[in-house]
């Protein structure tokens, strides 16, 4: 099922995904897959990664600009889709901003499609692991998403119906 012009806010690490002025290539490919999947499914993309050109333009944006923009996007979006990659088997790649956005999504009652290796790694917080008990959240294994990005359509539809 197509996304019918729904607005999908795609989140994930930016600052901690940049090493030696180069954005993590595996994460970049995954985010690009997400952006393309939403567009191909007739959805609208809200993405700091796209806006900031995967870190190239990040220094141009002030903390105030990023906070105001991302909060406005959270208010505007139909679904928040954070992508949380891991470092090894036990640790999430640090992404303070994405965790704040997860809190905003829950507080604003925005459905969340969490894309991360499943089960959530040992180093993931209790709040992240228990979030589905306090807000509308579906999880999709990161490797399954990479294998078939279009499956987000059905998951998002289910999130918006229930």
Automatic annotation (TrEMBL):
Q: Which SUPFAM superfamilies does this UniProt record tie to the protein? A: N-(deoxy)ribosyltransferase-like
Write one Pfam family the protein is assigned to: Nuc_deoxyrib_tr
Q: Which domain of life is it from?
A: Bacteria
This one is known as Nucleoside 2-deoxyribosyltransferase
Give the organism, scientific name.
Erwinia amylovora NBRC 12687 = CFBP 1232
